[in-house]
Every structure is written in structure tokens, then in C-alpha cells.
Amino acid sequence: xxxxxxxxxxxxxxxxxxxxxxxxxxxxxxxxxxxxxxxxxxxxxxxxxxxxxxxxxxxxxxxxxxxxxxxxxxxxxxxxxxxxxxxxxxxxxxxxxxxxxxxxxxxxxxxxxxxxxxxxxxxxxxxxxxxxxxxxxxxxxxxxxxxxxxxxxxxxxxxxxxxxxxxxxxxxxxxxxxxxxxxxxxxxxxxxxxxxxxxxxxxxxxxxxxxxxxxxxxxxxxxxxxxxxxxxxxxxxxxxxxxxxxxxxxxxxxxxxxxxxxxxxxxxxxxxxxxxxxxxxxxxxxxxxxxxxxxxxxxxxxxxxxxxxxxxxxxxxxxxxxxxxxxxxxxxxxxxxxxxxxxxxxxxxxxxxxxxxxxxxxxxxxxxxxxxxxxxxxxxxxxxxxxxxxxxxxxxxxxxxxxxxxxxxxxxxxxxxxxxxxxxxxxxxxxxxxxxxxxxxxxxxxxxxxxxxxxxxxxxxxxxxxxxxxxxxxxxxxxxxxxxxxxxxxxxxxxxxxxxxxxxxxxxxxxxxxxxxxxxxxxxxxxxxxxxxxxxxxxxxxxx
Amino acid sequence: xxxxxxxxxxxxxxxxxxxxxxxxxxxxxxxxxxxxxxxxxxxxxxxxxxxxxxxxxxxxxxxxxxxxxxxxxxxxxxxxxxxxxxxxxxxxxxxxxxxxxxxxxxxxxxxxxxxxxxxxxxxxxxxxxxxxxxxxxxxxxxxxxxxxxxxxxxxxxxxxxxxxxxxxxxxxxxxxxxxxxxxxxxxxxxxxxxxxxxxxxxxxxxxxxxxxxxxxxxxxxxxxxxxxxxxxxxxxxxxxxxxxxxxxxxxxxxxxxxxxxxxxxxxxxxxxxxxxxxxxxxxxxxxxxxxxxxxxxxxxxxxxxxx
Lengths: 544, 307
Description:
The complex is a heterodimer. In chain A, 28% of the residues lie in helices and 21% in strands. Chain A contains 17 helices and 20 strands. Chain A has helices at 62-71, 118-129, 140-143, 149-153, 183-186, 197-203, 257-265, 279-285, 317-326, 329-337, 361-364, 367-380, 399-416, 427-435, 454-457, 474-483, 490-503, and strands at 22-23, 42-47, 76-78, 84-86, 89-94, 100-105, 164-168, 171-175, 219-225, 229-234, 248-253, 271-273, 290-303, 342-343, 390-396, 419-425, 441-447, 506-518, 522-523, 540-541. In chain A, strands 12, 13, 14, 15, 16, 17 and 18 form a seven-stranded mixed beta sheet that branches. In chain A, β5 (89-94) and β6 form a beta hairpin. In chain A, α9 packs antiparallel against α12 and α16 runs antiparallel to α17. Chain A starts with 21 loop residues before the first strand and ends with a strand. Chain B is mainly α. Chain B contains 13 helices and no strands. In chain B, α4 packs antiparallel against α9, α6 packs across α7 (172-202) and α9 packs antiparallel against α12. Classes of the chains: A alpha+beta, B mainly alpha. Chains A and B meet through α7 and α14 of A and α2, α4, α6, α10 and α11 of B.
């Protein structure tokens, strides 16, 4: 599973410059007057897999980040729309060029009663980048600009050189090596949470065991049974506990989506994902419970653009364009997936904050026109019934991927006579093949690390480690560089999208939606947060 | 007998070592590594992780250290995927779960399977025989990944009698469906083996003699026919018992029991090297122990084998 980091980064959102103290109201369960609350305030949330680690400096996947986000609290949290609201910090000051952030911590205690100090943040951040910790997310502080982070990860500097220091117990100063106007948003990400130094030092690797763990979030860990459940109980020492309503959160591991639905229907879970293709029937049967909300993810095909591409035809841009034209996205989203997904003709999801969708030509054409053009393009490239194009498409084993692959191969066969051989494999093998560029065409998907278009456009950089197609265009690289300092980066983003639509190193298929069932007595869910970051303290259950 | 057991134990240790070495190189041959994800990690980050888990050392050294840690400290190392757990933690948490439902599934399939097999054989070609054969064929052709959803449909969604999953420290409503799902196929096999073996014994000369002596039918069956008829069943029960107490990936994943069975597949898919080796050693050791018990039982049932 991929981490869809809990980080929002619309640069436009934080516009206050200079040393201005910012104070905003904290977010909590806002129960309207007269609401009758349920007697049993237990929220049962289905997770797909085992919870991977409860250590904030190590956590990797989305489901686990939800657990950790309830056990610990960063400087700022996200509200129902994904905007930053004060968490462990009450306010912050920032210098004129957005390179020095000073956070003022509120009076709060850990679940063992010790005060939460600025030094706990310093300890945690240093620990996250310390090579000895070996965290997958050690690159995160560097990504968001914390000074010296990359050099520490590379072993060139000791961890105590990280650009974060405790001025006193309640004041934390962060030095950045670049201007990051949206830095406050990034503090809602688990890697930048605090950890209790004394507890970590005392128990070492065992510190996250239920009997040892100490957190500063609204909940404490009661039980952790891998493969079954993780149970959290309300933390009475949490600073905003008076406003917390939910008493218990169960994260129930249910590997099979259909079993998830069964256990939802039997009342064992309050929320579960809807399997591909079942949304229309669910919406009809349970109109108030079935939801489909946009998500910051794109499903696409990579075409191997490197010299390792064995299929000569795919090196011809006309062939790539013909393939892209002939794929009827409407059929895929409306007849195969049926979950309100949006057909994609460009890369960055239109739900991304501040992103203006590009005016791509293909999006405006009818499918019949696209098909006609596809045939023309293929003929121009010198391919046809006498000289058919053949290639192999690789994807990781999954029902939904298989359905899409089958439908696409059918479309290409019927419309263009292209032989698309399907080859499924387990995920780790696919990743390895893609990494080695040992493929012709491959399934791929990307979820934004934060809510700003650069998290998508950055993949088109010739040097990006996520550029799986091996696409390289000097203009795109140049525009990417310009966008990082541009007052209106949208201009560059549009140039990049247009160029990628012309070069076709990738074929975008659709933009994801999160399709789920949720019991109607659950209130306070952040439907409008495109990254679906939720906190138990903001939820409540009504009676009846 | 003691010498026999000691001899078998002496073979067990090299067998386990061969198992570890083979598994080690097989899993290293699989493409990918525990740290590949959809997100490709920067080179420095990956290097730190490799160093943290000792994967930067030569493979022979990794293998030697791994075996040494098991022998000297009984430590299977940290999980590469579930990073705040050791493999010992994973086994300590999951094995009691599978041991519980596996044990009950074993009892159910052995008791019901043998009884059905005996009755079917004794009342051959009666309605009881047809029923038993019908049930066993039914249980055999429905694999547990089909049976499990059917059980949930009936007992959870329609009748509301049992929870659809979870374990809750092994409270009995949570144990029933895993036990049924796991035992069905084994039960059918045991019944089938018992029936055919029993039929063979019932047609042998010494049973004819016993009947000729005028012994009542139930005495003939229980005193004379049952013990020899069970021999093939016992040799089947050994590996079945080990297979059951180490759980089933279908049962663990479908019913979210948190048992050890899921890790056999899960750890391989995740390339979680230490966990793969840990559960392989566990299964290997239990299989060797199970076979030993079967051999001893065999010797007890059939004195011919002892010599």
C-alpha cells in the first residue's frame, strides 16, 4: 500500500507573512445542541491490512497513520476540509521569507502525566532522520525543507545538526533551507509528531507495546493484535478531552473487501470500502450510507520510454497516442468500476487544491472521433492488419486491475487490431520489474503526498525516483524548476501537462474516488478532506 | 523405544538446518526486497534501512548470524515489515490463536470423521452410508475459501447467531466458524480413509472368525476391527494435526483471527525475510515433532513396526 501522506500544501492557503502570531480555534467534535448522543460511543473502522508500526517516526501506510494520528498529536492537525488547525502548538510565528517557523506549544501532558516539551519534538525529528533508526520516511523532513535533514540521512552530519531546536520547554524553532510557505500543514504528518524521549530510551524497540506506549493524542492504546484489531481508548489526560465524545476506536483488520461489507451489514464495523463495481447497487439499497468522494490519486499506464523498451512500435509517439485515444475511459469508470471515478486525460487530479485542470484536446473529443483518429494515427505510423502492434501489459494481481486490463485489451483488439498480452504478477515482483525498467507497458498509480500539484508534476522530472516510465524532456525539467519559485506555479503545471499529453510517456486512465459505506449514526466525518485524514476526537455517534 | 526416539531427534536437527538454508536462498532469489513499495525510496534512505537490518552484509554472513541467533538466543530477529515487532512477538501472538482453533478443528474432524467412517463401513450400502459418503464428498469439493463465506452468510447475516469475524481472546462464538471452515475437508478425508480401511478389515479372516465365535457386532467392531482399521488414519492424522495448529491462511484472513496461518503467505508476499524464516522453522519443527509422535503411536498400535 502506498502512503498518502497527511500533508496539505496549497501554498496559497498560508498567506500571512512577517512575524505575525496566528491563533485559530482548535477543532473538536462539534455536536449541535439538542443532539441525542448514542450510549455506546465506539467507532469500528475497517482496515485492509495489519497495522505496520505505531512508532510515528517509522509509520508508512495510510491506515497505520490514522491509528498513529489518534495516539499522537503534531504541532498542527487538519480540519474537516484539510486546513491546518492548532494541535500540540497554540500558535506560530514565521519570518518574512518563510524559512524560520517558531511554534508556541500549549500546556499539555503525555498520557503518563509528563509535560509535552519542545524537546520531545526535537528528539523525535532527529530520531526520524537518524540513519540508525532506518525509517522509510527519513526523507520526509528533508522533503519539506528542514535544514540539514538530507545530509544527516546521508550520514554527512550528526543528527543534532538538524534545523530544529527547543528555545525553552514551550517554544520550538524550525529552520528551513528553502522557503516553504505551507510548512505548518506538514506538521500534521506522523514523521513530525513528537515522541516521549524517556519512554523510547527506556524500552527501545518495545516502546510501542501496549504496556509501554505513551502518547500525547486524544486516545491511548488498549490492545494491539496484529491481523485482528487495534483498540484505542479515550485519553483522559488529553488537553481537549472535555470535547471528545468517542470513547473507543477499534481498527479491525479485514483483508477481504466483500467480507468487510458482510461485517458492515451485520453491524460489526461502522465503515468499510465498497468493492469495485458494487457502488450503484449499494447506493440504491443504502442511499444514505454509500459515499463516493474524490481522492488525490491517478490510475495510469506507464510506457517504457527508455532504451530498454523492446517493442519498436511503442517508441513511435503516434502509436502511443493511438492506444491512448482508443481506450474508452467512460466504459472503464461507468461499466467496470462504477464508483463515481472520473475519466483521466491528464495526470494531476482536478480535486488538487489550487490546480486548474488543463485544456487537453482529447478530453473534448467524442469517443467516436477518438477512435477514428486512433485508426488514422496507427495507419500513419505504418501499422495495421498486415503489421499488427503487439505488446505485453504487466499488472499486480487484483480483480479490479484484471477487469480493467481485460477491457482495455478488448478495446485495442477490436478498434486497432493491437495484440495486448496480459501478464499479472504479485506486487513485489511488479515493483521490481518497474524499477529495473524490465517492462513494455505497466500498470501504475500515484497518490499525492500532499495537496498541491507539484506532488504529481514532480514525477515527470527526468531525475525523479518515481518516474517509472523513464520519461525525459528537458523542457519539462526546466518548467518544474521554474515552478518551485514561481508566484503562480499553475502556469508551469499547465505547460507540463500539455507536454506530457503530447509525448505520452503515460496513459492516464482515471482519477480515484474513495467509495465507502458508513453508518448514518456516525457524525463529523471529514468528507471534504481529499486526503481523508480523520481524528476520532472529531467524530461522534448519535442515538436512534 | 527410547533409542528409537533419540535417533529420530538426532536426524531432526540437520533436517531443520537444511530447511533454513534452502528457504534462505529461495527467498533471496525472489525478485524485490522487503523495502520496495509503490514509493521508490531515495538511495541514502535505502542504505540506512539495509544497514539497520543487516542486509548490507554478505549473504553467507547474514545466514550464519541468523542461525546463530536462533541457536544461541532463540531470537528470530525483527520483522522487516511490521517494524516494532520481532518475529518472536509475531509467533507468540499468533500461534496460541491457531493452536486453539486448530486443536478444536482437529478434535472435531477426528471424532466426527472416524465415527462417520466407521458407521458408513459397518452399515455399508444403507442410508447412513449414503449420507456419510454424500456429506464427505460435499465437504471435500467445497474448499474452505468457499465454505467460509457461506458460513458467514448463514450464521451471521441470516441467522444473526455468530459474529462474522474477529477473535476476542478466543471467546467461543468467535471460534465456531473458523473451526468448521478448517475441519470440513479434513473431516471428509478422515471419514473416507476410515470407511475404506474399515471395510477392508471387516472383510478379513480374523473378523470372520470373531463373528463365527458368536461375538456381538459392536464388540467385533470396537475390540477387533477398529485398531487395525485406524492405522492408515493415524498416519494421516500426524501431518493433519500440524497443518491444523499452524492454521490456515484462508481462515486467518477471512475471519481476521490474528492467527499465525496468515503469515505464511503474507510474509512471503512482503518479502519479510525474518518472518518467512521464523514461520518456516516453526512449521518445520512441528512437522518433525508430529511425524515423530505418529511413528511412536504407530509402534504402539502395531507391534510389527517396532522391530
